[in-house]
Amino acid sequence: MSRAPQQLNMDFGQTNPLGEALRAGQFMLVIEQNVPGADQALPSATAMAHAMAERAAQEDAVAAISITDRLRNWDTHDPIDFATGAIADTRLPALLTIAGKGSTPDRVLSLAAKAKSRGVRTYCCVTGDGAPDHPPVRSARLAATYAEGYLDGVDLLGLLHRHDPSLCLGAAVNPFKYNLADQFLQYYKMIRKLESGADFLIAHAGWDMKKLQELQWFLRMRDLGNSVLARLRLLVPEDVANLESSTCPGVHVPREFATILQRECNVNESQFLAAQLHRLGLQVAGCKLLGYSGVVLAGIRSPGVLDMVLKRVAACLRDYTDYDSWLEAWNDYHGSLQFSPTTTPFYAFQDLLAPGQSSYAPETCVAAAAEFAAPGLADRLGALLLPALLSSRTPPLLRTTLRHILRRHDTTPPERLRHCWYLDNSACPKRLTLGPCGGSAPDGLCEFGQGPCFFHRIFALAAARHELDLLEEGVQE
User: Fold this and answer.
1) Is the distance from CB of 269 to CB of 277 less than 8 angstroms?
2) Are 249 and 438 in contact (CB under 8 A)?
3) Boundary of a domain, candidates 280, 313, 334
4) Which end of the chain offers a freer environment for a tag, N or C, measured as fewer CB atoms within 10 Å?
5) pLDDT, tens digit, 9 for 90 and up, residues 184-204
């Protein structure tokens, strides 16, 4: 199910400078800005974002301003108004994230039409993190759902591609998963997104460089040459107290690293910032050497801090031009610190971040042993019987009765049910069918904490039936 490398073959036309940069594969910096909540004054927030865009535009390496959508909130100002105000009278285009959280197809297409009229032609499609007002989820079998719903990032890709095939579309992937099921579910859904129209990828934020190398090796192993941007976050002191909550949805900080951050924070604010700038600069240089097409720099909140970030990043890119010297500097700075949040982390390859081994080579990069969990008997029987029982060939009255018994009041169309082997996805608070979001905990618990991610069951079924390739199928509905 792998696709041929595309990095040098994408055609986004002459009106999309960011698309052209992605096509060329040149290393780029993208500066992230969050759309302000509806309770904040839009003019002042836009003025600050514009000041940052003006400073960013002075650096040739900066290719765009990334605009988030409904990050940790859904009641925000219009992202198009914010984006166009932020980049006004600068050379920088906007990379607009569209979140499925609380979205409808009408909202997505309305945003796309408005964005096109303002010259925005590059998007990243994400399902989105859990809504703050999502009802409490207490049952692992019948999870409370969100009235406004969640559109899967895969569905967003399809909507936008059908709306305008010339758009440059991106998708998210979270490599910072530390159990086998979660990690491979992320990678299989990543391929599904590429097969469904994504041109490039953005990796979730995190600090574990082994995981960032793992993602690159997996892509190379599958002969996928799409551009990948790594999202990296600059922490500020107030972030440290919230590391375990909402600072980085789906990315979890190990206790030892959190202790180091707290110690850095306790010295003084300037010393804390200096430590974060150096760590961020090292990460940017490392990402370039590991094969990333660029980085999205998040968490920068003022032009003054942005100026320091850009200078530090430029210095690190000058200082570390080969993998081994960078690796030595990274290890010297962090000592024996392990960035995995569990004591028995899963990595898809052996010997990651080893000297002399920056790029994937089949003869030397060894995949880790994989032991798949067995599916439950009920799931095996359901996957065997439900396709026939719920098919259009079954008499309507019988089909409705069976559906009510087997899938409660779910109204998901049969063609969607096949993507989760016709199992009842009521255990997923977001009611996803095309694969998981990126928000699960290190131990595999759902983002909402009520039980294991529903898609662990799907993964076990697919493995037992030797149908893992079906988890990668593109969706063109």
Assistant:
1) no
2) yes
3) 334
4) C
5) 999 999 999 999 999 999 999
